[in-house]
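Interim report to the steering committee. The following record documents the input for Taurine dioxygenase (327 residues).
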Amino acid sequence: MTIQLDRPLTTETIATQAEPEPGYATIEVRKVGAHLGAQIGGVVIGGDVPPEQVAEIKRALAAHKVIFLRDQHDAGDAEQRAFAGLLGTVTKPHPTVAGDGEAILPIDSDTGKANSWHTDVTFVDRIPSASLLRAVELPPYGGTTVWANTTRAYESLHPALKALVDRLWAVHSNLYDYAAERDEKRIGGIDVKEQAYRDEFGHLEYETEHPVVRIHPVTGERTLLLGHFIRHFVGLSGRDSSDLFQLLQRHVTRLDNTVRWSWRLGDLAVWDNQATQHYAVDDYDDQHRRLHRITLAGEVPVSVDGVRSSVRKGDATHFSPLAAVGA
């Protein structure tokens, strides 16, 4: 039996074939995955998106954790920045790395390809609430990004594990070199541009103690705060920290808990950085890949006991103000 497809089955065609979700009057929302991800239609990004559309975009983001807008071909950095400002307070590009202007952080394959699950900038106290990533230059194949739902990952834990992680804290650091193992195996060593980027990334040291389970400031859900900026769990040895980290990360990155996006020029992805991890897949050889990221200000995480994260090293006030509670 031969199955004929009119066109290859991609993330785009799956989303296009899905029925629009009810309850939205000004945008079209089609699920991309069962547990996270939706494609948004009817929006042209920029600073003049109507308030009623902005409100529905925020609602879709809270519900689906990551949303995708196709065919934004007329949008450049200015339009991305203006649209981001409608969704929240725009931060500086990064706590340690120089950006392209006041808001844009280039994600460029020339400065490295980190095959690593992470939530953006968890080594500071004021973790960004959301990130907006726009495709600028893409390889002819590969270069996809995968997101995972950290809220559902928590919900999937056995009650005994929930009881453990509800009271657990972790130390996050920008000096934790999550790509070291890969680089040790790389023939020819680290590229000069990549080494320069790493030196810049770590020239200021940040270390923050976060709860492993935080309360989402908008939805009230419990969500796992993990990722490869974690140095160790408070009170546990290095070996025990590593074993427990791997166990918890497996719950986060189960395939049924993820969505994978195949980028096209004109694409914009927006994700809830308080309820997801993501992974940029290095599967495009030496082709060039460049995307532009903007982050939005977030709150200091709060544990299930109402305790806020605490700074061990570094001051991130120059990077981001604190978001208004529940914003």
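The domain at 28-313 is CATH 3.60.130.10 (Double-stranded beta-helix). The committee is asked to note this result when reviewing the revised timeline.
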